[in-house]
Write a structure and sequence with these properties.
2 copies of one chain form a homodimer.
Chain A lengths: L14 H15 L4 H8 L3 H8 L7 H11 L3 H4 L2
Helix pairs in contact in A: 2-3, 2-4
């Protein structure tokens, strides 16, 4: 039986995944649903869902919209 | 003759324009040419030129590449 070895160093997760996790963390801390955030930021719920799941390389404009909707600085939203 | 009135409040410049100005400022402080930055960040000189002129709504991935090439934190590059 072949033993699968895991790499010693865990590679850093992709930027999109880290950004999604950061957004989700702040959204949960503030108890804001995907839908409420979408409404406030002028985005769709499905787009927020895709960002959450680390699928989107968001633009600076979207970063600023999300930060404004969450009432935080864009800097705080960077992973 | 019609008198052109300027708005009393100067509207904030577009995000892309403010980002271009910030990139140019840091690039100049560090005395790095558009070409050198392009090489280091894996982008083209013409793309850096368009960012500088406030034409591009850059992605998070590009923000991080530019910051890494300038040896600063992505937070410092946000306008």
């Amino acid at each position: 039986m072949k033993v699968v070895e895991f790499p010693k160093v865990v590679p850093q997760e992709k930027l999109e995944v880290r950004f999604g996790a950061k957004l989700r963390q702040i959204r949960n801390e503030k108890d804001i649903s995907q839908e409420a955030l979408a409404d406030k930021a002028g985005l769709t719920r499905s787009y927020i869902g895709r960002i959450d799941r680390g699928r989107i390389n968001v633009s600076l404009a979207t970063l600023y919209k999300l930060a404004e909707a969450l009432e935080i600085s864009p800097k705080e939203l960077l992973p």
